[in-house]
Amino acid sequence: MDTSYTKQYINGEWKVGSSEKTIKNINPYTGEEIFTIRSADKSDLDKAYEAAYMTQPEWANKTVAEKQGLFQKLVDVMLEEKETIIEWLIKESGSTHIKAMIEFDAALGIVKESMSFPTRMKGYIFPSIFPNKENRIYRIPKGVVAVIGPWNFPFHLTMRSVAPALATGNTVVVKPASDTPVTSGLIFGSLFEKAGFPKGLVNVLVGKGSEIGDEFVLHPIPKIISFTGSTEVGRRIGERAGKYLKDVALELGGNNVMIVLKDANIEKAAKAAAFGKFLHQGQICMALNRIVVAKEIYEEFIEHFIKIVSKLPYGDPADKSTFVGPVINKEQADRLEEVVKTSIEQGAELIYGGKVEGCLMQPTVLRNVSNDMDIAQKEIFGPIATILKFEDEEEAIEIANGSPYGLSGSIFTEDRHHGVELAMKIETGMIHINDQSVNDEAHIPFGGEKDSGVGRFNGEWAIEKFTTVKWIGVQSGYREFPL
To answer: Which residues form the domain of 426?
Structure first.
């Protein structure tokens, strides 16, 4: 049993949690216990927030050179610890080696992009309507940022909030997902510690939602709550934060569509669809949920798609050739098995896969799916591909928009300009022409519409989210008042 991460990280110290409750960390592929950690309770939460609050002003006042120097050290440490991070992603979240490499590179990109933020927090000077006065607009950090990490892309999606928050002068308290306490939390304590960041900047608390979940959001110290996860939980966080006028950054669920037009390169579209559907077993907010194909090429597309999917290696995520590994836990595997069963009862046809062993599900393909079926209306979050048929482009748009979600999407066509015109009609925060839906670039705005979230991550949009502006009016001469 690995016992290297069995303590909380508070104010630069590794401490045993104060709760009587424990959380087991289980390898989803082998079912073996990695370790058990004593949970944090409210007293630990208070200490973590106090540490972040007390440290923040001094951190905000450090020079650009000091902050960027520490971020460069963080890059160096991440590269030194790359194999360790990848190993943890494989054994804790069921990541395949391919997915873990993609995730590491994405997180590294976030850190490198964030390194530029201290020089990009620009202010403005505006003229005034009053004589001898100028208006200065300063961009300043919000203070303490609460980060709730997810289990699916735990390292990258937690880093996506932590690095920008720190780079803009904030401090953070992280609550990792219980299924991935290391890769969405505790490993950040060791990385930032090894890089030489001051104590109190990064704090990590592993605790049960029933014990510290609500208080993590309602606590008076954090000014903004950053959460990546389900729409259901995100909505509750938004409601609780809104009561106390806290800002939120919410990246939530998706029901993403790939539209394959009749002029598309079918072979390329099928290959892209397989990647966008089955990377990390489909457990990605941006993963393809519905593959919507023109009636003229429907059968041919399916033929190409099955040919690709049938060759996808699935099994042990530690095997570098594996593309589809286990889902996160047995509860999810059971849910997905039931999803397939229900879909067949509603009229879908299972044409490949469907086999489930433990947490491992064979890549699965359903055809003859209609947009009113449960599987088309809800986020799948598993290795099940659904293929729908459309008569014309108006129906394709109707299918794409016939969902409460609006995160990502894809359109395949040989007419790129027409693809863009069609993309403008889809209610989604992100969409890609002749590419699949799983894309994230550190300098490009990431986020969704409708039930897929609030706000944008990455680049200048992250600077906007994790800072606020302050107006200081400066009067250079005495102003006369009509008194």
So the answer is: 256-433
